[in-house]
Design goal:
The chain has about 300 residues and is α/β, with parallel strands linked by helices. Helices cover about 45% and strands about 20% of the residues.
Length: about 300
């Protein structure tokens, strides 16, 4: 159980509606439903009765309500006290819009520790939140997004992500029907690319939200998918994955966003420059021929 599940439960209980709770939390309605379902599975009880008029608490939900409020309020007080007590330590909160940047954020944490002498305390891997809104509200200090940056935020264009089509067996687009295609939620540009180049080629689709999990699934289940070049470089060099011929690279924008009034001040610029250095290293890695892994 985590805090976001309890906060989501409380939002639904107060609003009486999953859609209204999603608006309050700045997440999708699907994310709200998933968090409530996870909490119900953990507790092995049903928390809401869902109907046309909204969501009403069950007896179990009413029982949980006061305890959940107490936990969230206690955490809010403790975290506030901790920030005040240890104000000499920087609280850096990082987040990424897409799961393909999870490892990049971890690398950035290490870079900050080694170069700025500060300890980042928070990494946000909730890919269902609107990271630009989170930066605007002060939930995140720096975030990486593929979306067009909002005008009220400071944005820095980073080297783009380059996706390539790989599979567990050597093949090409012209070979006929391709095997299972693992699809990801990478935004409108990605969706348009897939619709243009892969529509009707793959035998079936499976949708996954997390790129790292998708790669693990691909290795075990087989199939094809679009991944960042750096993520599959080792698999290609070892011959466990193959570059699918006949499809160009897809370029996905990468932008770092921060708030102009960030409490980090000038350090934000240093952090973004560190991220640019890391992104440049990924973008200028060894080139891979479309047939480099073919026997």
């Amino acid at each position: 159980m985590n805090l976001s599940q309890l906060e989501t439960f409380l939002a639904v209980a107060r609003r009486g509606n999953f859609h209204a709770a999603a608006r309050q939390l700045h997440v999708t309605q699907a994310a709200v439903s998933a968090r409530v379902k996870q909490l119900e599975e953990i507790l092995d009880v049903r928390l809401f009765e869902r109907g046309r008029r909204g969501a009403t608490l069950t007896e179990a939900g009413k029982f949980l309500l006061s305890g959940a409020e107490s936990i969230v309020n206690t955490w809010t007080a403790i975290s506030k006290d901790a920030r005040q007590r240890y104000s000499d330590r920087i609280l850096l909160r990082l987040g990424g819009q897409l799961s393909i940047w999870d490892q990049q954020l971890i690398d950035l944490v290490i870079w900050v520790e080694e170069n700025l002498g500060k300890l980042p305390l928070s990494l946000n891997f909730d890919h269902e939140i609107d990271v630009q809104d989170a930066v605007r509200r002060g939930v995140l200090d720096v975030a990486v997004t593929h979306e067009r940056p909002n005008a009220d935020l400071v944005s820095v264009a980073l080297p783009p992500e380059r996706l390539i089509l790989v599979g567990t067996q050597p093949c090409a687009l012209g070979d006929g029907a391709l095997p299972l295609f693992i699809n990801f939620q990478f935004g409108e540009r990605y969706d348009a690319f897939v619709a243009r180049h892969l529509h009707g080629h793959a035998a079936q689709h499976i949708m996954m939200g997390n790129c790292g999990m998708g790669l693990q699934y691909l290795r075990q289940r087989g199939g094809i998918a679009l991944f960042p070049k750096a993520m599959v470089a080792e698999d290609l060099s070892q011959g466990s994955l193959y570059r699918i011929a006949g499809l160009p690279e897809m370029e996905l924008p990468c932008n770092a966003v921060s708030h102009p009034a960030s409490v980090l001040g000038a350090m934000t610029t240093s952090i973004v420059e560190g991220l640019r250095t890391l992104r440049t290293g990924v973008a200028t890695g060894p080139e891979m021929s479309p047939h480099s892994s073919l026997p």
